[in-house]
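thought: fold this chain, then report.
action: predict
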Amino acid sequence: MNRLHLHLLSDSTGETLENIAKAALAQYDDVETLRHFWPMVRSEAHLERILQEIAQNPGLVLFTLVNPVIRRTLEARCRAMGLPAVAPLDGVNAALSGLLGEAANARPGRQHMLDAAYFARVDAIQFTIAHDDGLNWENWEEAEIVLAGVSRSSKTPTSIYLANRGFKVANIPIVIESPPPTKLFELKNPLVVGLTTSADRLIQVRRNRLLSLNQAPETDYVDQEAVGREVAYARRMFADNGWPVIDVTRRSIEETAAAVITLYQAQRPR
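observation:
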């Protein structure tokens, strides 16, 4: 197994850099990555402390630094140590500058400004938390997206992920013994999406959940026949109401959310 020291330097929160590194590393197998995360790097004194750590643990350096002095110092010192230092946003900024005919504003953390979009995202998160697992169904018409599915079909984590993207989301568990309120079938504004999964995968997830709670692992909750009926009941409901369906069996939360966003954008008026 290869061992890699990965140094991430950002003059802001470093969230963008972390996502870039994660996406790149996902393409490599058998790599033990030791991450050194350095956010809010805005002074040469801070950079000097980091460079000492890099010298002790040499590896790949990724950075998003807009201050030209700090950036030049980092690049020069990395060259002297024979280490690659990569600014992954440089190519994008160069292309944008060429097309727009203007230079980028060198302001760290500008994407985190407290603008209208930021407060809309906060509002979406608050709404989504308040409408998790069938709560406050009277307000579902205010949602942009409603996710429906049987227990443990990733409704809540997908909802939270979508909320962080700025969507107001409600979710409702589909339970044979307790049908959802009629409001669900009367919604006009939200996009209702059914989440389904294979019975075998659902049983595995539910068993793990029961074990984590120190509960009996053999109940109707994980019975093959009972779970099969549950999944079939939900699928029938989705089909009867003409709701789009996403099979989450082999999807990550991010992939499921991306599919939901595609459906939402397709149904919006142009």
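thought: worth noting. Strands lie at 2-10, 31-38, 60-64, 85-86, 145-149, 169-173, 191-196, 245-247.
final: tokens above.
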